[in-house]
Design brief:
The complex is a heterodimer of chains A (283) and B (281). In chain A, strand 3 and strand 4 form a beta hairpin. The N and C termini of chain A lie far apart (44 Å). In chain A, the strands form two sheets. In chain A, strands 1-2-5-3-4 form a five-stranded antiparallel β-sheet. Chain A has a four-stranded antiparallel β-sheet with strand order 6-7-8-9, sandwiched between helices. Chain A is α+β, with helices and mostly antiparallel strands and 283 residues long. Helices cover 27% and strands 20% of the residues of chain A. In chain A, helix 3 runs antiparallel to helix 7 and helix 10 packs antiparallel against helix 11. Chain B contains eight helices and four strands. Chain B has a two-stranded antiparallel ribbon with strand order 1-2. In chain B, strands 3-4 form a two-stranded antiparallel ribbon. Classes of the chains: A alpha+beta (283), B mainly alpha (281). At the A-B interface, loops of A face strand 1, strand 2 and helix 6 of B.
Chain lengths: 283, 281
């Protein structure tokens, strides 16, 4: 049974208050991308939303849908009886499996990845996800909205049957922070990420006072790199610190047959997210 | 809602992939139903247990006050195995019941603990214990037949007292051994499908059909353990069985209980010294 929620106005729109912004789950990605307050104060989210799929899809696609989408693993999408589909094998994690897009971290039987672009931006902004059901409402951190196969191999998020993501609240904690977002994909539009990275930071005397950084498409859930956040605190936001952070970020990575490139890619994305790069954009 | 879940593999073959997960609840309900029926029967319908003959008057003098029943090694094995079994059940089935956590690592570690403990037990029981005592002999089978006849109201000779282990213990041991070996063997093969530090992953070790049967057998043995362990805990807590349970903690049972339940001719006990421990009453 499919329930059309488009008639529920409360699920749409962006509301600004002293407590940040509240984004209805059915707000389109274009609205998120173009909202003046989000562009001004939470640029990392506007940037991430602008990188999703294509303009046509962003006009229709919603932020709630974006964070709740399923994985793109083609073995799973093709309907093969893999772990994620309730079976007992991961076809991508076999000697002949096509796994160029798959996980280098956090794999547990299944090696599919989360393909969401806005997730790492929402995680670094410390967003809260409001979930409602007939039992009531619960609010969870963006970071905890996503789950890996070690917890539940059939889902990428915590939503249970009967639950609905209604709102995403972005607190003012990181408003106006220096941010970085970069998405690597095979083509520049209408494609899912091979990897993406988002970071926000506040500097004090040219040194990192506090920061948050997250990557996605490296694992089945977006990964907040807490060890990196701790390690770079008090250090200058330059290439040397970025290089150190990059090495730290990929510790424990296990490449598959065809995705070893993701390790240097992630290392460099993290480096750029901290040290900056000419080609990248600071805001 | 089949007993087995089937799927079509990439080559178009219909292969089993899992048991039907509703069997978890079937096993739990079956275990619970057994407990209720058994407890009700004992409470309201069962006749007092009778044995064939009184103990000879001379025997008690030869029996120590505390009859050694389980060595420290045997008790350690039992409780380690019990912990491993419970860990296996909880990590396997709690996620199915909606309690989500990272269970796979804990599951295979518990499986390895179970495997190691069972290997120890096989060697220990073969060379250091009375290996035959846990297997039913002709007297056990004959007495079981007599007890069955009596249960249905037929005339039959009274059964003799037990040897070291009552027939129920022996049968339970046999069943748990079969189920345990099934989960151990299938579990070890299944470790080739996950990432561990012990095995090189090889998802192609078997065909899809064979893998499916391994998963199904592991699942069936697992749900079987749910009922078996429920029953085991129930008997362990029954008042008339508490001396046996205590002997699995402290290692001994009282002379009175020994003489009431066991036949000194079939379970020969010498004046074994059972040292006191801080855990003993």
């Amino acid at each position: 049974m499919v329930v059309d929620l488009s008639g529920v106005d409360e699920l749409r729109g962006i509301r600004v208050s002293d407590e940040g912004v509240e984004i209805g789950a059915m707000t389109t990605l274009t609205e998120v991308e173009q909202h003046p307050v989000i562009r001004e104060k939470y640029g990392v989210l506007a940037e991430a939303a602008s990188m999703v799929a294509s303009p046509q899809i962003r006009n229709q696609g919603t932020i709630g849908g974006n964070v709740s989408q399923d994985t793109r693993c083609w073995y799973y999408r093709a309907g093969w009886p893999c772990y994620r589909a309730g079976g007992n094998i991961c076809y991508a994690d076999t000697p002949e499996g096509r796994n160029r897009e798959h996980a280098i971290l956090g794999a547990s039987r299944c090696v599919a990845v989360n393909p969401c672009d806005t997730a790492p931006a929402l995680i670094v902004l410390d967003a809260k996800f409001v979930i409602r059901s007939r039992k009531g409402e619960r609010v969870i951190d963006a970071e905890d909205y996503f789950i890996g196969p070690d917890v539940d191999i059939t889902r990428l998020h915590v939503l249970q049957p009967g639950e609905l993501l209604t709102t995403i609240r972005v607190p003012p904690t990181w408003a106006g922070a220096r941010f970085y977002f970069e998405k690597i994909r095979d083509r520049n539009v209408w494609d899912f990420p091979l990897l993406n990275v988002a970071s926000v930071m506040f500097l004090s005397n040219a040194r990192i006072d506090r920061m948050r950084i997250a990557v996605n498409a490296a694992a089945a859930r977006p990964l907040r790199l807490k060890s990196v956040e701790v390690a770079v605190r008090g250090m200058p936001a330059d290439a040397a610190t970025g290089a150190l952070a990059g090495k730290l970020a990929v510790e424990g990575a296990v490449p598959l047959q065809f995705n070893a490139y993701k390790i240097p890619l992630m290392r460099n994305l993290v480096k750029r997210a901290i040290g900056g790069v000419e080609e990248g954009r600071w805001a | 809602m089949g007993l087995i879940q089937w799927a079509t593999d990439p080559w178009g073959l219909s292969v089993p992939i899992h048991i039907g997960w509703f069997l978890i609840w079937v096993a739990a309900i079956a275990g619970l139903a057994f407990l209720i029926v058994h407890a009700t029967y004992l409470r309201y319908f069962a006749k007092p247990r009778q044995f064939a003959a009184e103990q000879p008057a001379s025997i008690p003098d030869e029996i120590p006050a505390r009859v050694a029943r389980h060595s420290i090694a045997a008790r350690a094995f039992h409780w380690i195995m019990a912990a491993a079994m419970l860990a296996l059940l909880f990590t396997a089935f709690l996620p199915r019941a909606g309690f989500e956590f990272d269970w796979v690592t804990y599951h295979w570690i518990a499986g390895l603990v179970l495997t190691a403990s069972v290997l120890f037990h096989v060697v220990h029981a073969s060379f250091w214990l009375d290996f035959r005592s846990i297997w039913p002999d002709r007297i056990d089978m004959k007495d079981a037949w007599h007890r069955t006849l009596a249960f249905f109201g037929r005339r039959a000779p009274l059964p003799r007292r037990f040897a070291k282990y009552p027939l129920e213990n022996q049968l339970y041991h046999g069943v748990i051994m079969i189920v345990g070996v099934a989960v151990i063997v299938t579990g070890i093969f299944m470790m080739f499908r996950i990432r561990t530090t012990l095995f090189t992953r090889n998802p192609y070790l078997f065909s899809d059909l064979t893998w499916g049967m391994i998963y199904v057998l592991n699942g069936l043995a697992g749900v079987g353990l749910i009922a078996l362990i429920m029953v085991h805990i129930y008997f362990g807590l029954r008042p008339e069985k508490l001396p046996i349970t205590r002997s699995m903690i402290f290692g001994w049972m009282s002379r009175e209980f020994y003489l009431h339940e066991h036949d000194p001719a079939r379970w020969v006990v010498t004046g074994t010294h059972v040292p006191r421990t801080p855990f003993q009453e």
